[in-house]
Amino acid sequence: MKELETHGSFELPVETYTDNCVIFRSLYNHWHKEMEIICIDQGSGLARLNRETLRLKEGDLLIVNSGVLHGIKSDSRHILYYRSVVFDLSFLAGPAGDLCQEKVISLLMENRAEFTHLITRSHENYGNIFHLFCEIHQCHKDKPPFYYMKLKGLFYGLFYEMLAGNYIITTDAEQNRNLLSIKKVLDYISAHYREPLSVKELSGLSNYSEFYFMKLFKQYTGKTAAAYLNDYRLEKAKSLLLHTDASVTDIALDVGFNNTSYFIKKFQEANQLSPHKFRKKMS
What we know:
Blueprint: E1 14-20, E2 26-30, E3 35-42, E4 45-49, E5 52-56, E6 61-64, E7 70-74, E8 81-87, H1 99-109, E9 113-115, E10 118-119, H2 126-142, H3 147-164, E11 168-170, H4 173-192, H5 199-206, H6 210-221, H7 225-243, H8 248-254, H9 260-271, H10 275-282
Antiparallel strand pairs: 1-8, 2-7, 3-6, 3-8, 4-5, 4-7, 6-10, 9-11
């Protein structure tokens, strides 16, 4: 689904976060027009960026390019803790004819090129890139006088190190078209997950045959459409369990399950806890 949250402000479209996957083990598939850089501080897990699945460990830097469909799942025994920087490329844009704009920024903004998705300690320039990420995160957090000037310089330095390490590739036009179709379906699921939904209905939205749609959907999400819908409903149920006093039956119906017993079974399979125990433990 498309993320609607605003990151930063119009004047300074940059935001930093420090978070973990203690309660929500999965950060569900979503995208935003901003770029995001995620540093894994502790734990391990999996990331999915478009059709690519990546194993994450401490120290890794995950690069989420503009518009990329992405999600993270933490290992249950090694919970992920991470820092991230989310920023709109307009912060670094220049006027027409500007060399940085024409050679790099515009390519990234128009999805004609993207940075490599994962940089680990074994990669060239890792130390410089990691150091610049930490400086960006700390600068935005501390906000010293004229920090916005320093931030822009640090971002340009980071991009330079990425380019010097040859961590930029051209994108595939067909992949971009396929991605748009899958995004359209995920947006529809996000808006209508409470309602009965069928694979036939979802494939009709994609303008592909049902067979090709099912194949494409699994490539981009790692799940069948039915499994994705079930898991999405279960994640929505978690929020209701934590932030409302509604009964388990009411929550099951609210998120699209028409059978409470089935909801409890699937919830326990996914979380190793019943809805009642989850609410009691996490509240």
